[in-house]
Amino acid sequence: QVQLAESGGGFVPPGGSLKLSCANSGFNFDIVWLSWYRQAPGKQREVIATISQKNITSYDDSVKDRFTVSRDNAKRSLELQMNNLRPEDTAVYYCNLRGARDGNVWGPGTQVIVSA
Question: What is the largest CA-CA distance in the chain?
């Protein structure tokens, strides 16, 4: 059974930084692509960063050059470093396998609020 739990969110001013973490179990971590997603108020959930088993990364244009996704297969660790945060980054952030849809298991997410 896949289990996911995001942490590290919070309230930060514009320009601030946060690092999100994804606790996980129930699947073969080291052989899957993983993604970070976010859902802003009134909007659909969107994928913002993806990382392959071998650390190939891709980013949505909205977070490129500001966010960095990383993983450590030995530690089963997935993180998202977010720098230079903007008010439009305000959202609930989720981790999951690449291509996850509403019918997949999702964690509770972690809230990020960027505001002065």
Answer: 41
